[in-house]
């Protein structure tokens, strides 16, 4: 899937620098900028982009909003409504449920000052809203981009190999067998023993594979020592 970020008339160079960095963090394929209010490769922009400054090569500037849009278009807004069709929304973690796996996913963000107009919103396929305090629901542009890209990353691009491996059912069975042997040796009360083992099982169900194996090694060594 091609991931495209569309910024409509961005106004702040610092925000844009942060967004360059975020685009590199979350592997955005293209950063489309519609009528920016500054030079996109300005020294101030690149300073705040930090190690993401080389991402400037993937930035494309457009004069037309329509020309910048591509594929499945998801607009974003802090202003939403349950009765206004244009402002009917979905939440970031529901995105994949609604749009599936499109060839191109365009995430559209409006101006820092006024966001997107109704006409611009109407050209999108979906409106995405990040819920926040009703007393102050409007997020900074780069913060909204960060939250949205993170949700997209979780739903579409995060590989299991990047995360700690979970133990298999076989690993859990072996661990519980050894734990059961030790509990039977040291806890005479059957009811208490069963309660302890239930607690142990719930605890290890949250462990990673490497954590479980370390605990199993310790229990196995204890069991071997006791056997003599």
TrEMBL record:
Give the record's GO CC terms: cytosol
InterPro entries given for it? Alpha/beta_knot_MTases, RNA_MeTrfase_TrmJ/LasT, SpoU_MeTrfase, tRNA_m1G_MTases_N
Record keywords: Methyltransferase, S-adenosyl-L-methionine, Transferase
Report the GO molecular function annotations: RNA binding; RNA methyltransferase activity
> Alphabetically, which GO biological process terms does the record hold?
tRNA nucleoside ribose methylation
Q: Which domain of life is it from?
A: Archaea
> Which residue range or ranges hold the tRNA/rRNA methyltransferase SpoU type domain?
3-150
Q: Record's Pfam families?
A: SpoU_methylase
| Methyltransferase is among the record's keywords | yes
Q: Which family does it belong to?
A: Belongs to the class IV-like SAM-binding methyltransferase superfamily. RNA methyltransferase TrmH family.
Q: What is this protein called?
A: RNA methyltransferase
Biological classification of the source:
Archaea, Thermoproteota, Thermoprotei, Desulfurococcales, Desulfurococcaceae
